[in-house]
Amino acid sequence: xxxxxxxxxxxxxxxxxxxxSVINNIEKEFDELIIGxxxxxxxxxxxxxxxxxxxxxxxxxxxxxxxxxxxxxxxDDIQQNSVWVSYVTSRTPxxxxxxxxxxxxxxxxxxxxxxxxxxxxxxxxxxxxxxxxKLMLEGEDWRKLVPGPVVDVIDEIDxxxxxxxxxxSDA
Length: 171
Ligand code: NAD
Description:
Rossmann fold; five-stranded parallel sheet; 7 helices
C-alpha cells in the first residue's frame, strides 16, 4: 500500500500551540508529514528571530510525544513565486496533499494541480507568532502559548534575550 504524505509549511517563528493543534487534528488523514521550515535563510531578525535549525529542534521535540512521523525540510525563500512549487517539490519527499491557511500558498499549489486543504484555525488571535514575539519583547508571559519543548529550546538558546537585543537601535 502506498503511503499518503502531507505537506505543511510555515515560518514557525516560533512553533506554537496553533501549529501543534493543526498537526494533531489532521494526523489521521496522512501516514507521514513533511514540514517545510519556510524562510529558512532568515534568523536574528525581529520578525524571524530563530534559525532553521532551532525551529527544527522546536518541532522535533514538540512532536516527540505523538506517533507522527515527520520530515522537517528547510526551504529558503526565492524571488519567483511562479516557480516556487517546483522549487519546493525538488527539495522535499513526494507528497499528495498540502495543508495551509496562507492564501498565496493555496493559490500556488492549486495552480500546480496539487490538492490543498485548509485546516480550522485554533484561537488565531492568541496563538500567533507575531503576538508571541510581542509578549517576549514586553516581558509578558508567552510560555503558555507554545508547547513545553519549545520553551526549553528558546531558554537553551537564550532566545528572548536575542530578540530583545536585535530589536534595539543604537540611537
Ligand atoms: P506561519 O508560521 O505564520 O503559519 C504556518 C501555518 O500555520 C499557516 O498555514 C497559518 O495559517 C497557520 N496558523 C498560524 N496560526 C494558526 C493558529 N492559531 N491556528 C491554526 N493555524 C494557524 O507561516 P507562513 O507565513 O504561512 O509561512 C509561509 C512560508 O512560505 C513563509 O516562509 C514564506 O516566505 C514561504 N513562501 C515563500 C514563497 C517564495 O519563496 N516565493 C512563496 C510562498 C510562500
